[in-house]
């Protein structure tokens, strides 16, 4: 059979037009295109109508010179652009970067990779230049019992024990939390079990967690309008975390002990 095939190929060289294929017809077509054909030898060793479309590989009726005349060309893309700015200020949003196609894929070449990437973004200042970062920095909390064990002077010598500012209390309504909070049963982290969705909790802002200049605690959400979702994380188990919304600021916390916490 192989001898017969070689003889036919040799005979074809003496037959004008017998080797017409994709190159001579000047055809290379995407997908399946019944009009993209030529006359010549096919790859399945049959002489007659052969095709120069991309689907001929599947149907087995490509012209003998398809691979040479219509080589697969992969997609080429350019470099990523610089990241855009945040889509908005003072709220969790996105930033974007893009790249363009330098060469479209041809003849079954590798397709183009993603041309756009998005990432989380947050700008901590308003268009007027006012800082709003306190609303979105995750709040780190622990049990209020810890406050009995720390002193201002030992932890933060910048604070005077005679300061007139006694701190403040933030009330939040919990929106969500991870299941890892309820699984805590260690003596010093058992307080996490009392975190529940839909409850109002009190979080005390006291030195040294309180910044000595701004007189604020990081993540206190004081600048939020009450509709913004804020994030918190329990100290002692980083997998115990969740979201809440600000209710109000008060001078003194009045929640039950199991729902009373402090910024840390």
Describe the structure.
The protein folds into 3 domains: 20-71; 76-123, TSP-1 type 1 repeat; 133-152 and 166-263, no CATH class. Helix content is 11%, strand content 25%. The protein has 5 helices and 12 strands. The longest helix is centred in the N-terminal third of the chain and has 13 residues, at 2-14. Mean pLDDT is 81; it is low at 11-17 and 149-164. Residues 24-75 form the SMB domain. Keywords: Disulfide bond, Glycoprotein, Signal. Residues 1-20 form the signal peptide.
Strand element count:
12
Low-pLDDT stretches: 11-17, 149-164
> How many separate structural domains?
3
Gap between N and C termini, in Å?
A: 84 Å
Helix/strand/pairing class, anyone?
Answer: alpha+beta
Short description:
The protein has helices spanning about 1-15, 20-25, 55-60, 65-70, 150-155, and strands at about 35-40, 45-50, 75, 95-100, 100-105, 115-120, 140-145, 170-175, 200-205, 230-235, 240-250, 260-264. It has about 260 residues and is α+β, with helices and mostly antiparallel strands. The protein has a 6-stranded mixed β-barrel. Strands 1-2 form a two-stranded antiparallel sheet. The chain has a two-stranded antiparallel ribbon with strand order 3-5.
């Amino acid at each position: 059979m192989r001898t017969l095939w070689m003889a036919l190929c040799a005979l074809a060289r003496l037959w004008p037009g017998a080797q017409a294929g994709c190159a001579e017809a000047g055809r290379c077509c995407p997908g399946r295109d019944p009009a993209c054909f030529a006359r010549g030898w096919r790859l399945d060793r049959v002489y007659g109508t052969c095709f120069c479309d991309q689907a001929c590989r599947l149907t087995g009726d490509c012209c003998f010179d398809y691979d040479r005349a219509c080589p697969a060309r992969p997609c080429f893309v350019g470099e990523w652009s610089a990241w855009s700015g945040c889509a908005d200020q003072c709220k969790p949003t996105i930033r974007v970067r893009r790249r363009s196609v330098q060469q479209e894929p041809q003849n079954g070449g590798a397709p183009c990779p993603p041309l756009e990437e998005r990432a989380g973004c947050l700008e901590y200042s308003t268009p007027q230049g006012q800082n709003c970062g306190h609303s979105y920095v995750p709040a780190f909390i622990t049990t209020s019992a810890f406050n009995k064990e720390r002193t201002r002077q030992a932890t933060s010598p910048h604070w005077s024990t005679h300061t007139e500012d006694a701190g403040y209390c933030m009330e939040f309504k919990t929106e969500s939390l991870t299941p890892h909070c309820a699984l805590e049963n260690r003596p010093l982290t058992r307080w996490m079990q009392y975190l529940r969705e839909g409850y109002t909790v009190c979080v005390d802002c006291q030195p040294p967690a309180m910044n000595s200049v701004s007189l604020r605690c990081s993540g206190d959400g004081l600048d939020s309008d009450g509709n913004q979702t804020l994030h918190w994380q329990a100290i002692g188990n980083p997998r115990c975390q969740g979201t809440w919304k600000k209710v109000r600021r008060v001078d003194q916390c009045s929640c039950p002990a199991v729902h009373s916490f402090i910024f840390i």
